[in-house]
Amino acid sequence: MPKITYEKPIVELQGDEMTRILWDWIKEILLEPKVELNTEYYDLGLVHRDETDDRVTFEAGEAIKKWGVGVKCATITPNAQRMEEYKLKRLYPSPNGTIRAVLDGTVFRTPILVKGITPYIPTWTKPITIARHAYGDVYKATDVRVEAGSRAELLVTKADGSTEKYPVHDFTGAGVLQGMHNTDKSITAFARSCFNFALSSGRDLWFGTKDTISKTYDGRFKAIFADIYEKEFKAAFEKAGLNYEYTLIDDCVARVVRSSGGYIWACKNYDGDVMSDMLATAFGSLAMMSSVLVSPDGNYEYEAAHGTVTRHYYKYRAGEETSTNPVATIFAWSGALRKRGESENNAALTSFADDLERATISTIESGYMTGDLAGIFKADGITPKKLNSRDFLKAIASNL
Ligand code: NAP
Ligand code: MG
What we know:
Elements: E1 10-14, H1 17-31, E2 39-43, H2 46-51, H3 55-67, E3 69-72, H4 80-85, H5 95-103, E4 106-111, E5 129-133, E6 142-146, E7 151-157, E8 163-170, E9 175-179, H6 184-201, E10 205-209, H7 217-240, E11 244-248, H8 249-258, E12 264-267, H9 269-282, E13 289-294, E14 300-304, H10 310-317, H11 327-343, H12 347-365, E15 368-369, H13 371-374, E16 385-386, H14 389-399
Parallel strand pairs: 1-2, 1-3, 3-14, 5-12, 10-11, 10-12, 15-16
Antiparallel strand pairs: 4-5, 4-13, 6-9, 7-8, 13-14
């Protein structure tokens, strides 16, 4: 059979450690035998980020803007220990943060469900997608320690030079202080991405904040969502039979736990960070969580939600076999290939993406999986078999 081809490149962002190894194996065993991969390659491995003073990360973000579709391997966010380990010139920021700043998007995280792995909340029979605002709040805040006897105020200098001051706190004892922000532009883009994603995936959208306490700040999020919905999306939602609902985040949490899933839950940046980890764990495994960053102008970056699986990498480097789960990274590739297929009306490519996902899920459902899943898999008449990563990929390939 001739290999499947497509026109425009997909931006390929290689990463670090165990996921870097899995990346090459996925291409070799699952993709390259069937698809003539056309990628624009950026090596975001920490060594090359250091060699380029992190320029490669910005360039990769710009390339996704240019070509519209990217796929990213997990990468190390360096800390002091990594700086020593890799003899880095400086402490580079998180690559995901850099790319999010270039694309200004929303991150959608969706668990990959398979029969035999029951969520801790058994009524969750359909996936719950977290839409996480990826700009501002505590992730771009000024954090300070304050001495006893200090007075803290917010000072705003306007465009015309005039100022306004707002009291924060008179510190009788020492304490801490934080200044954070968001912008109408970014919140508006967040709202549009969420409404578009809900429409394109045919699911309801919920949004929750703490606007009872944070009346102006969170209130602004609520108002912008309401405004964009009324003006731009209400008609399309009604036509598609979908709902948009705003409620207090406390109420969201209670309703999520009682629900059967199947909707999109929009969260502010911090809420989305925490709630997506909670959902990943509750759905069974961090290694079964897919993730896509969608920019307001319609660019897509697909990745796994987990990290570089350092502990497994050290074993691999010592010559041991590891049973690291490649599923979320496979789904990052299938997501990118499907999106490219859709953008070029390329049915062969979109079908390949569907087949790849089906083959991956059916391999697990028939009892062949990596160690993280083998420990929690339960299905009548099937004894789960734990495979190493390469053998698991080969089992998927033979189903494919
Ligand atoms: P991690 O790589 O997600 O791994 C944490 C633990 O979760 C692993 O030790 C492993 O547990 C389990 N795990 C995660 N993914 C797995 C998989 N695919 N298959 C099997 N088990 C899996 O998180 P971390 O150890 O906190 O971070 C490691 C590095 O990744 C850090 O340098 C961090 O900066 C980076 N990171 C990158 C991203 C990203 O690029 N998106 C996200 C998060 C972290 P066991 O060891 O018990 O088997
Ligand atoms: Mg988190």
